[in-house]
Amino acid sequence: GQQVMQIPQYQHVQEGEDFTTYCNSSTTLSNIQWYKQRPGGHPVFLIQLVKSGEVKKQKRLTFQFGEAKKNSSLHITATQTTDVGTYFCAGPGSNDYKLSFGAGTTVTVRA
Amino acid sequence: DAGVIQSPRHEVTEMGQEVTLRCKPISGHNSLFWYRQTMMRGLELLIYFNNNVPIDDSGMPEDRFSAKMPNASFSTLKIQPSEPRDSAVYFCASSSPPGTDTQYFGPGTRLTVL
Questions:
Q1: pLDDT at B83 over 60
Q2: Which of A2, A88, A95, A103 has its CB surrounded by the most CB atoms within 10 Å?
Q3: Across residues A95-106, what is the average pLDDT?
Q4: A99 and B31 in contact by Cβ < 8 A?
């Protein structure tokens, strides 16, 4: 079945630095979604990418969908303590009803 | 919009007891999902419903787990009997078809089985 892999599993970042987390699928995706889960919270939808090569920005967050629609990335610039949490990517599963979530990248920030 | 509502938020029980988790999806959403999250296994899909019908329950770990959706505004996940390894955070999420639209997660129920 379709699998979504994320790397790295953990990301320790100095406040103010940039970092990127990556998401790879074993199959071509019709779309990819990103979610953020704060410590003790629940996953919250951030964004959806649909088109090949699509790039979307949310303030300091830049999301990209690969040309082959099999990978995606999330780049955060000038990391802040508010960026702490786990970032999940998710792609369509074996049918139209469900999403296949990656294992997530857990981000911690050193002040 | 109240979002997805789950109850209870925390549950502590003893091994062997029955546990019932409840979920109210967002009004108008036709798909409902139950997930379990642990440090070891991450976020696991247990079961999902579409129009109140269970579509895929392949993620349900064993017969001790059962889920129902008697109507469009209510779903339950039951564990009977509970075991310590069932300790986890259980999330309910809903979405509006068609396709894999955005899923809206509830706050979760943190279950501890002693």
A1: yes
A2: A88
A3: 84
A4: no
Q: By the CB < 8 Å criterion, does A66 face chain B?
A: no
Q: Which of A43, A90, A96 sits opposite B99 (nearest CB)?
A: A96
Tokens linked to A16: 């103010």
CA dihedral defined by A10, A103, B97, A63, rounded to 10 degrees?
A: 30
Task: Give residue-wise pLDDT tens across range B99-113.
Answer: 557 899 999 999 999
As a whole number, the mean pLDDT across chain A is 93
Tell me: the pLDDT tens digits for B55-81? 989 899 889 999 999 999 999 999 999
Here the contacts of A26-32 (C-beta below 8 Å, separation 24 or greater) are: A26/A2, A26/A70, A27/A2, A27/A70, A28/A68, A28/A69, A28/A70, A29/A69, A29/A70, A29/A91, A29/A92, A30/A69, A30/A92, A30/B99, A30/B100, A31/A91, A31/A92, A31/B100, A32/A65, A32/A69, A32/A72, A32/A89, A32/A90, A32/A91
Is there a contact between B48 and A97 if contact means CB atoms under 8 Å apart? yes
Residues 6 or more apart whose Cβ sits within 8 Å of residue B62: none
